[in-house]
Amino acid sequence: MAVSIRPLAMNPAHPDLTNAAGVRARLANEQYVESLARISYYWGYPAVNTFGRTDTWQVMQAPGATMGLFPGAPKNRLGYLDDYMSAAQRKVVTPNNDTIYGAGFADLAEGAVVIQTPRDVPQGHYWTIQIVDLFTTVTHQLGSASGTPGGKLLLVGPGWTGERPAGFLDVLHSPTNVAGVFGRSFAARTPEAKARARAVLNQIGMVPLGQDEPGPLTFDCEASARNKVFPPGITEQMVTADPDILRVRPVDVTAFWDDLEEALDFNPVVGADDAPMADQARTLLALRKADPVWKALIDHAALEADTELHDGATYHQVGVDMGNGWQRQQNAGLWGTDWFGRAQAAVIYIYVNDFHEALYFIRGTDARDTLLHGRYHYAMTFSPDALPPVDAARGGFWSLTMYDQDYFMPADSPNGRHNIGTVNLDANELRFAEDGSLTLHLSHESPTDEVAQANWLPAPDSQFALIVRAYVPTDPLLGGTYQLPNVQRL
Predict the structure, then answer these.
(1) How far does Cα 54 stand from its chain's mean position?
(2) For residues 315-339, average pLDDT
(3) pLDDT value of position 3
(4) What is the pLDDT of residue 17?
(5) What is the value of pTM for the model shown?
C-alpha cells in the first residue's frame, strides 16, 4: 500500500495556484525526486551489475570458460578456469594474477544449493569461497584464512525455512535470492604449483540440492576451461582479432531503471541495510511509470549520476589515505550502508573480498602526487624485514599487480610478469640489497642495471595504476600500523 500511495504524494496538491504560487512547491518536489534518484543510482548500481551477470544462466549449458577467457556457468553451478585469467581479456577489470578462479551465480528462489569445500588441501595452501548478495556485500567468506573444514554447506535464500540436513556442516543464509559464489585457489608459476591449485579447485563447487550425491563431489576445472562458450553474435575469431569488442560497460545507464526494476522483482526481499532504499527505489520506479515528465527527470538524474560515479571511481581518487600515497576502502566487502563506496568498488574492482580476508591497497600517483606513467622509472623500496606481514600458515601471501589506465593487465609483458610478490620471493627470483632491503622497479623500458632487471615489473607505455593485495593480513596491516613504501619517481 505504501508504495502505491507514495508516488502520488510527489506531486503538489495544487501546482497551478494563481500568480505562480504553486511553482515553488513543484520545484521543491522535483529537487527531492532528482536527489533521491541520484542516490538510488549509486545504491542500485552494484545490484544491476550483478543481476546482469546472470545472463550466463541462458548462455551456458554446462560449466565453461565464457569466450574462453573467464569462468561461466549455468544457474546454481560453478564454472572454472584452469590457469590465471588471461592478461589479453578486456572485460573483467582488475582480476588478480595470483589465483585460479571459479565463479557462478545461485538462484535461491528455486531452492537451496550445496556449497562444497575442499577436504584435501596441502598445508599452507590458500583457497577461498566468497559468497556475496545481489549488492556485492560479502555474506560469507570460507577458506584457509578462516579455517573452514572440508565438507558441504547449504546455501539458502531469504524465504527458506527448515533444518540443517544430515551430513552438512552448516546452513548459510543469503539476504537476496541471487548470490554470487566465487572460488579461488592460489597458484605459483610452476607447473607443479598450478597442478596443486587445480587439485584444490576441483574440490570446490556448487550444485542444486536436488542434484547432490553422497560423499564428496568432484569437479573438473580443466574440462570447464576447454568448454569455450560464445554468446550469440560473438565468435572466437572476433575476440582474438579485437579483444576490445568485449569492453562494454556492465551497467547500461539508458536502461538502468528498467534493469533495476527487474533485479528488485527477482529479489523482493533484500538485507536489512538495503531494505529502506529498496522501498524508496520502488517508489521512484512507480513515479517514473506514472508520468512522462517525472520519467524524463528521473532518467536525466541517472545520466548525471553515472557520469559522476565513473569520474570519481578511479585508482587515484577512491579510498582513504593509508600512508605513503596508498589508499584503501577500509570497509571493503562489508559495505553496510556505504552505498557510495560500494558503487565505486563495483566500477574498479567488483566482488572484493571481505577485508579481513584480503586487503586491497590501490594508487594511481607517485610520491610527487603526479599520475603514474610508463615514460618514467619508479621504485618501491621495502626496508629490511618489512615486507607486507601476512599469515603464511593460513595461506597468506602478497602481490603488487600492474594495470593500465583502464584497469586491465597489460596484454604483453617482456619478462612475463604482470605482478610481483610472494611467488617471486619463494622462487628466489628477486635480489635484495646488502642491507636486506628490497627495491622493486616499475617502468615501461627495461632497467639497464642487472639487479633492477631482476626486480622489474613492466608498465605500459601510458598511464597506469597499482594494487597491492595482501591475502590473510595480520594485525599490523589490518590496524594500519604497517605502511607500504612510497612509489618514488627516479
Answers:
(1) 15
(2) 97
(3) 44
(4) 81
(5) 0.95
- For the cut 80, the answer to whether the pLDDT of residue 9 exceeds it is no
Q: Which grid coordinates are listed for 335? A: 559495505
Distance between CA atoms of 80 and 172, rounded to whole angstroms? 22
When pLDDT is cut at 50, 70 and 90, the band that residue 12 belongs to is confident
User: Quick one: average pLDDT of 423-449?
Assistant: 97
The pLDDT of residue 2 is above 60: no
Beta carbons within 8 Å of 307's beta carbon, 6+ residues apart: none
Q: At what angle do helices 23-52 and 292-312 cross, to 10 degrees?
A: 60
Domains, the chain, in order of start with CATH, read 2-52+250-312 (no CATH), 60-246 (2.60.40.1610), 320-489 (2.60.120.600)
- Contact in structure between 102 and 183 (CB atoms under 8 Å): yes
3-state SS track over the chain = CHHHHHHHHCCCCCCCCHHHCCHHHHHHHHHHHHHHHHHHHHHHHHHHHHHHHHHHHHHCCCCEEECCCEEECCCCCCEECCCCCCCCCCCCCCCCCCEEEEEEEEECCCCCEEEEECCCCCCCCCEEEEEECCCCCEEEEEECCCCCCCEEEEEECCCCCCCCCCCCCEEEECCCCEEEEEEEEECCCCHHHHHHHHHHHCCCEEEEHHHCCCCCCCCCHHHHHHCEECCCCCCHHHHHHCHHHHCCCCCCHHHHHHHHHHHHHHCCCCCCCCHHHHHHHHHHHHHHHHCHHHHHHHHHHHHHHHHHHHHHCCCCCCCEECCCCCEECCCCCCCCCCHHHHHHHHHHCCCCCCCCCEEEEEECECCCCCECECCCCEEEEECCCCCCCECHHHCCEEEEEEEECCCCCCCCCCCCCCEEEHHHHHCCCCCCCCCCCEEEEEECCCCCCHHHHHCEEECCCCEEEEEEEEECECHHHHHCCCCCCCCEEC
Q: How far is Cα 78 from Cα 50, in angstroms, rounded to an integer?
A: 16
pLDDT digits (tens, 9 = 90+) for 123-166: 999 999 999 999 999 999 999 999 999 999 999 999 999 999 99
Kindly give the pairing relationship between strand 151-156 and strand 113-117.
antiparallel
Residue 8 confidence class, pLDDT cut points 50, 70, 90:
low
CA–CA distance, 378 with 463 (Å, rounded to integer) = 13
pLDDT tens digits, 167-184? 999 999 999 999 999 999
